[in-house]
Amino acid sequence: MPSRAAQQQAERPTGQAMLRGMRGQCPSCGSGRLFRGYLTVRDRCPSCDEALHHQRADDGPAYLTILLVSHLGAPLLLACYIAWRPTAMTMILCFGLGAIVLSLLLLPRIKGAMVGLQWARRMHGFGIEPDPATT
């Protein structure tokens, strides 16, 4: 029979935690809000009191956002130009605005998914249980 520590190690499904984070929910309980602001992660979940201050998303979400937006935008830009031949100013305005809006929509979702991944994989201190003697 596996020990309690081994059972706790297997209790964090990565996909579920990433989906919860992507929806802006706590990766642990799924009911508390993950973000305090647009991209500011709360120190603790208001529902389950899970410590979230361990997250180290840093520049990863921004890089992934740029990667996704550019890989979606470039083929679409070419297809629109070939199909309709719009003016250069129309292309700049439409695709510039589209890239900004898509980036603003994707960035918090990608950051939430990255925090969920870190929580599920017990990265950066998420798996460390607090010492009962110090609390």
Automatic annotation (TrEMBL):
Keyword field: Membrane, Transmembrane, Transmembrane helix
Pfam families: DUF983
Positions of transmembrane segments: 62-84, 90-107
Domain of life of the native organism: Bacteria
Stated name of the protein: DUF983 domain-containing protein
Native organism: Paracoccus spongiarum
